[in-house]
Amino acid sequence: MSTIPTLPTSSGTERVPLTLVDLANRFGEIPPARICMDPPPGEATEADLLHYSDHDNRLFELVDGTLIEKTMGTFEALVALTIATALNNYLKTNRLGVALGSDGQLKIKPDLIRVPDVCFISRERLKASDFLKVAIASVSPNLAIEVISRSNSKREMSEKLNEYFETGTEEVWYVYPEKKELHQYTAIDQCQVMQENEAVTSSRLLPGFSLLIASIFVDPLADEPTASSGPQG
């Protein structure tokens, strides 16, 4: 049963309920249904996150002791899978590291667990991490990719961008299915916006990799994709 979220008062002896306004002020205007109330916001731990993953098949991120559900629409899931497939095909012949999909939970700080929709982690980082020893590896991805859905708030995505770069991520892609754009960040303040007729590359992280933006948003109901729409790598 869900409990009412609370925060300690200054005296430390009483607790007052958090309102939806309080949660919105902290996390931005994400749908309240994405914020887990049991355990109360501010009191959740990695163990709680793993419990939901194991018993309820629900995927959460852990931010400031609060479990925030990771949600994705059907088409957004297809977009993420298309990108992950292109990366995996490239990495089969370029053994630079691994690509993870939309359930790859990563502890990028001791108290911060994020779940990029797709990510690339280099062999060097994997070797230096606890990747094969724990349920949630303590490692920041070299490349983090987020497919933006309507339930993502601007504040949420701005915070994620800062967190990724602060913890050592070298590149971040924000993919916008509705606008059919890919925003490629090579630093917090350096972004290139790419349209359907362009291809995204990353010579520093993925030499020789190229993915046509149009191929990410191919209509699955189209009779036959064009010859130029497939992923390259």
Descriptive tags:
disordered N terminus, single chain, 233 residues, disordered C terminus, alpha+beta, 6-stranded mixed β-sheet
Poorly predicted regions are 1-11, 227-231
Helix fraction, binned, reads 25-40%
Q: How much of the sequence is in beta strands?
A: 25-35%
Termini separation (Å)?
Answer: 48 Å
Count of DSSP E strands?
Answer: 14
Query: What's the Cα radius of gyration?
Result: 19 Å
The secondary-structure element order is: EEHHEEHEEEEHEHEEEEEH
Overall body shape:
globular
Largest sheet: 6 strands, mixed
- Please state how the strands of the largest beta sheet are arranged side by side: 5-8-9-10-11-12
Structural notes for this entry:
- The longest helix is centred in the middle third of the chain and has 20 residues, at 74-93.
- The termini are far apart.
- The model is unreliable at 1-11 and 227-231 (pLDDT under 50).
- By secondary structure, the protein is an alpha+beta fold.
- The strands form 5 sheets. A 6-stranded mixed beta sheet has the order 5-8-9-10-11-12, with helices on both faces. It has a two-stranded antiparallel sheet with strand order 1-2. Strands 3-4 form a two-stranded antiparallel ribbon.
- It contains 6 helices and 14 strands.
- A hairpin with a 2-residue loop joins strand 11 (181-187) and strand 12 (190-194).
